[in-house]
């Protein structure tokens, strides 16, 4: 269904390019905003405008937002390396390999956990959107480690609430550049989409509250191995907060990591692994905890640092 919006340009966007203003107002990428403008879906004070036009506060903005493309329907598709750590009538815990997203999304053509489980014959709850059956939390495509999914409706609602109320113990290990000072601490800084609209996230005033606790496990000459405990679960949270400390995750080119160090250690993605997951079982009530060993690429990088 097409969405028509009309509003005055806020004071805070005075002098911004139209595509940048559109991106900030509607949470779009700059590219998507430019496409809408080029297609004649944006008018300023009753006339068509160009993406590079500067907007004035109080000008009347009329926007036609086409319906977002629907996510693809999940289909059984084997996923090499996807491992079931635990399964019972209500939940399934998996160890997610590199290059796999949680569920199918618009524009992603690679494998997903959801489709891999369907190929294994695992029946997930139908709660939530069709393309996100059983998904109660997610990991980035190139972040490896533990995910829990719901197989029953009861488990889905209990787990969703547990993640929302921050009662799930989510532990990650990450290798970061340099040595954080202090060696342990908390980053409490709001996160939202980066103003550039290029898909990154950033610490942004007025963003969503985000809290990351870190502790140094082992320090090397050029890097530190940290244990991370998340209170919140924002997109790219660990990667953004480590970058904000000026100690980006090794290999995380998107957030400013040194490509030379990553290449020397043989790391082709961010060194970040969901190592432990603990929660109260959603139907039995007993505490459960699961652990995942480092995948080969991450383990090899740490060994190389120890040898150095």
TrEMBL record:
Its EC number is 5.4.99.-. Keywords: Isomerase, RNA-binding. It catalyses: a uridine in RNA = a pseudouridine in RNA. It comes from the Bacteria. Residues 16-74 form the RNA-binding S4 domain. Gene3D superfamilies: Pseudouridine synthase, RNA-binding S4 domain. InterPro entries: PsdUridine_synth_cat_dom_sf, PsdUridine_synth_RluA-like_CS, PsdUridine_synth_RluC/D, PsdUridine_synth_RsuA/RluA, RluA_PseudoU_synthase, S4_RNA-bd, S4_RNA-bd_sf. PROSITE patterns: PSI_RLU (PS01129), S4 (PS50889). Coiled coil: none annotated. Belongs to the pseudouridine synthase RluA family. NCBIfam families: rluA_subfam. Responsible for synthesis of pseudouridine from uracil. This is Pseudouridine synthase.
């Amino acid at each position: 269904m097409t969405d028509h919006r009309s509003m005055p340009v806020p004071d805070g966007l005075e002098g911004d390019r139209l595509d940048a203003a559109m991106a900030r107002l509607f949470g779009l990428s700059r590219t998507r905003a430019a496409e809408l403008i080029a297609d004649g879906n944006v008018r300023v004070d009753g006339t068509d405008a160009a993406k590079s036009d500067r907007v004035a506060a109080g000008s009347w903005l009329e926007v036609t937002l086409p319906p977002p493309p629907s996510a693809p329907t999940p289909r059984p598709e084997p996923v090499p390396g996807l491992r079931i750590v635990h399964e019972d009538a209500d939940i399934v815990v998996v160890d997610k390999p590199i290059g796999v997203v949680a569920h199918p999304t618009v524009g992603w053509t690679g494998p997903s956990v959801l489709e891999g489980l369907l190929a294994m014959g695992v029946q997930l709850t139908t709660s939530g959107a069709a393309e996100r059956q059983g998904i109660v939390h997610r990991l980035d495509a190139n972040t490896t480690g533990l995910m829990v999914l719901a197989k029953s409706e009861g488990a889905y609602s209990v787990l969703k609430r547990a993640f929302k109320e921050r009662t799930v113990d989510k532990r990650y290990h990450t290798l970061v550049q340099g040595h954080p000072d202090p060696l342990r601490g908390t980053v409490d800084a709001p996160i939202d989409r980066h103003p550039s609209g290029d898909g990154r996230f950033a610490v942004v005033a007025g963003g969503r509250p985000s809290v990351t606790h870190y502790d140094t496990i082992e320090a090397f000459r050029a890097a530190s191995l940290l244990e991370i405990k998340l209170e919140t679960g924002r997109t790219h949270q660990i990667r953004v907060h480590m970058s904000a400390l000026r100690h980006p995750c090794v290999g995380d080119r998107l957030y400013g990591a040194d490509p030379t160090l990553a290449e020397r250690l043989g790391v082709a993605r961010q060194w970040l692994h969901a190592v432990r997951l603990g929660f109260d079982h959603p139907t039995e009530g007993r505490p459960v905890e699961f652990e995942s060993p480092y995948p080969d690429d991450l383990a090899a990088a740490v060994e190389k640092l120890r040898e150095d």
